[in-house]
Write a structure and sequence with these properties.
- The structure is a single chain.
- By secondary structure, the protein is α+β, with helices and mostly antiparallel strands.
- The protein is built from one helix and three strands.
- The chain has one helix at about 30-45, and strands spanning about 1-10, 15-25, 55-60.
- Strands 2-1-3 form a three-stranded antiparallel β-sheet.
- A hairpin with a 4-residue loop joins β1 (about 1-10) and β2.
- The longest helix is centred in the middle third of the chain and has 15 residues, at about 30-45.
- It is elongated and about 35 Å long.
Amino acid sequence: MGKAIVKLNIATYAGEEYVVEVSCEKDDVEDIIIARAWKKVKEEEGSTLPYGHRSAAIINRTD
Protein backbone atom coordinates (compact mmCIF):
# COMPACT_ATOMS: atom_id res chain seq x y z
CA MET A 1 0.00 0.00 0.00
CA GLY A 2 1.31 3.40 -0.97
CA LYS A 3 0.72 6.99 0.01
CA ALA A 4 -0.42 10.05 -1.88
CA ILE A 5 -0.07 13.70 -0.93
CA VAL A 6 -3.03 15.73 -2.16
CA LYS A 7 -3.42 19.52 -2.29
CA LEU A 8 -7.04 20.66 -1.92
CA ASN A 9 -8.28 24.20 -2.57
CA ILE A 10 -11.59 25.89 -1.81
CA ALA A 11 -12.01 29.22 -3.58
CA THR A 12 -13.26 31.48 -0.79
CA TYR A 13 -12.27 35.05 -0.03
CA ALA A 14 -9.64 33.69 2.35
CA GLY A 15 -8.48 31.01 -0.10
CA GLU A 16 -8.73 27.84 1.98
CA GLU A 17 -5.94 25.37 1.20
CA TYR A 18 -5.30 21.93 2.67
CA VAL A 19 -2.52 19.39 2.12
CA VAL A 20 -3.24 15.85 3.30
CA GLU A 21 -1.67 12.42 3.01
CA VAL A 22 -3.90 9.44 2.23
CA SER A 23 -3.23 5.78 1.58
CA CYS A 24 -3.70 4.34 -1.89
CA GLU A 25 -3.17 1.22 -3.94
CA LYS A 26 -1.05 1.23 -7.08
CA ASP A 27 -4.10 0.75 -9.32
CA ASP A 28 -6.34 3.41 -7.68
CA VAL A 29 -7.50 6.10 -10.07
CA GLU A 30 -6.95 9.76 -9.17
CA ASP A 31 -10.65 10.42 -8.47
CA ILE A 32 -10.70 7.80 -5.70
CA ILE A 33 -7.58 9.22 -4.07
CA ILE A 34 -8.97 12.76 -4.22
CA ALA A 35 -12.30 11.60 -2.72
CA ARG A 36 -10.39 10.01 0.19
CA ALA A 37 -8.53 13.28 0.72
CA TRP A 38 -11.77 15.33 0.83
CA LYS A 39 -13.23 12.81 3.29
CA LYS A 40 -10.17 13.10 5.54
CA VAL A 41 -10.34 16.91 5.53
CA LYS A 42 -14.06 16.82 6.39
CA GLU A 43 -13.36 14.49 9.32
CA GLU A 44 -10.52 16.70 10.61
CA GLU A 45 -12.51 19.93 10.24
CA GLY A 46 -15.67 18.60 11.89
CA SER A 47 -17.51 17.91 8.60
CA THR A 48 -18.10 21.62 7.90
CA LEU A 49 -16.13 23.12 5.05
CA PRO A 50 -16.67 26.58 3.56
CA TYR A 51 -18.62 26.98 0.34
CA GLY A 52 -16.76 27.76 -2.85
CA HIS A 53 -15.33 26.19 -5.99
CA ARG A 54 -13.25 23.15 -5.06
CA SER A 55 -10.19 21.83 -6.83
CA ALA A 56 -7.65 19.16 -6.02
CA ALA A 57 -4.35 17.88 -7.34
CA ILE A 58 -2.14 14.96 -6.40
CA ILE A 59 1.29 16.39 -5.58
CA ASN A 60 3.19 13.16 -4.93
CA ARG A 61 2.31 9.49 -5.08
CA THR A 62 4.30 6.45 -3.98
CA ASP A 63 3.12 2.94 -4.73
